[in-house]
Model the fold of this input.
Amino acid sequence: MVITGADSLTLADGTSHPTGYWAEEVVASHRALREAGIEVDIATPGGVRPTVDPISLDERGGVPEAAAAEFRAYLESLDDQLARPLVLAEVDAADYDGVYLPGGHGPMQDLARDADLGRLLTDTDRSGKIVAALCHGPAGLLSAVGADGAFAFAGRRLTVFTDEEEGQGGLKDASPYLVESRLRGLGAVVESGPAWSSTVVVDRNVITGQNPQSSADTAHQVVKALG
Done:
């Protein structure tokens, strides 16, 4: 599981917006994978401790207090891993059966242009292993552009936090770019469900979820694919 190391996002006007990873996406995904008996390592750029987006733990992010308390408790149970994640640059695709990218706006800041992630994703996809991404996590797929400018996931079917959802409940016009539009521009075939629905798209080894509501279903599809 590759988690953003960013704690802020540079907005379209150049100002800084506090962000990080989205609590539900890490918690629901990690829990579903572990309950299925899958071992999950956590990596971040530079091995930094990842920051949870503060609004993913309160009502500003549409998260009821009871759910926020559950997420906090689960994240506390992962504290050893979160405090000492693997260094992304040192992760070898050969050692894993798949790569999973949860979201939050943080991936737009760092993972989208992380060459080490691009290498990991390209190697994982070429070997036919699982590439999974959720909500804004597919921003990380943008890193998989070769020296020739070819996008590793051009022509692949996937979903992502939509431009519509960004306009309704995301950063709206303040966003530095729209992940859905950027992926389409690189040749990805984006398929979207209704806003805020649980929507998962599976294209062979590539598994993507549209939004936080898709967290558990995305992880369950990864479990199914891993057999």
Remarks:
- The chain has a mean pLDDT of 97.
- Strands lie at 8-10, 16-18, 43-44, 86-87, 98-101, 130-134, 157-158, 189-190, 200-203, 206-209.
- The CA atoms of residues 8 and 18 lie 4 Å apart.
